[in-house]
Amino acid sequence: MASAGTSDLAQKSVSDALRATVRRELQPELDEIGSETLRDQVVEAWAVAIAHTSFTCIGDLRASGMWHSDRLIRGTQADHLRGVAAIALQIAAVLKRQFPELPVDRDILVAGALCHDVGKPYEYDPEKRAQRKAQPSRAGWPLFRHPPYGMHVCLTVGLPDEVAQIALGHSYEGEVLARSPECTIVHYADKSYWQTLRISGLMIDDYTDEVGA
Ligand SMILES: [Fe+2]
Q: How confident is the model at residue 2 (pLDDT cuts 50, 70, 90)?
């Protein structure tokens, strides 16, 4: 019989303690979202994503989340998310000053920036990777990449399509889509974050994992 797989996100209970942890990890940028409903959905997305893995909080993930790439000299995935959200807000603010008609929704932008990597706990969960790699003929290998899985998480918790599109399109999957203005900003904020830190010598390549792809 097939396992519950990845479609059981709505079934597993999420504790209020985990929600509170996630809320704390995403501040202060989370509070830049004006809509309380949207703030709660962002928290729910990350809480659900974490609850279905062996991680206990966003801070358990390396900044990149990856098992096979450089790591930051300090910080975690929570710092990365908050950094991308802060950069995205600055890009939008500068462009809005010059072009007030810029069609960027601030709430969608921040929610999308905070959720753009919400699929990473699944893709980089060492337990899921080990299980899947032990039986690659069952569901293929490697695991789903974090952009499509992140879209799945976003839609499961009721986040708007606009935020789910940012999760799906922020990385190279977005090269074959028409990115929204908010997704375009998050894409470049994410790229700026990594490429600037890497070229500045703030990334260290010292990680190995036998369960790597
Ligand atoms: Fe990212």
A: very low
